[in-house]
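Researcher: Next entry in the queue.
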Amino acid sequence: MMASAWKIVGNILRELIDRGMSNKNVKALLKNDNRMRGLYFVLFCMVEVMVDINQQRFSGLALNSGTRGERDDQFALIKDCSALCEILQATATKRRSER
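Model: Structure for this entry, 99 residues:
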């Protein structure tokens, strides 16, 4: 489930960047473009839900650490966080190359 959510987040980020969104023009684009505003809102909501899910997972891990299954959950959480870092790094690299 989380891998699919990260893929969707990555696709939305790519689309926003491909449509010309950058740090410099984000406010103007969100104000004037309904499509961009909708994409940004979906992105915001998805990330919020994903953070909530991971906080619940992490809370459960902290309360019940020690068994093999829980260690597997810890590795899954680390993998999800690593995926987000990769997406953010790719986005930053692409933005730098566009400048």
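Model: The radius of gyration is 16 Å.
Researcher: Noted, moving on.
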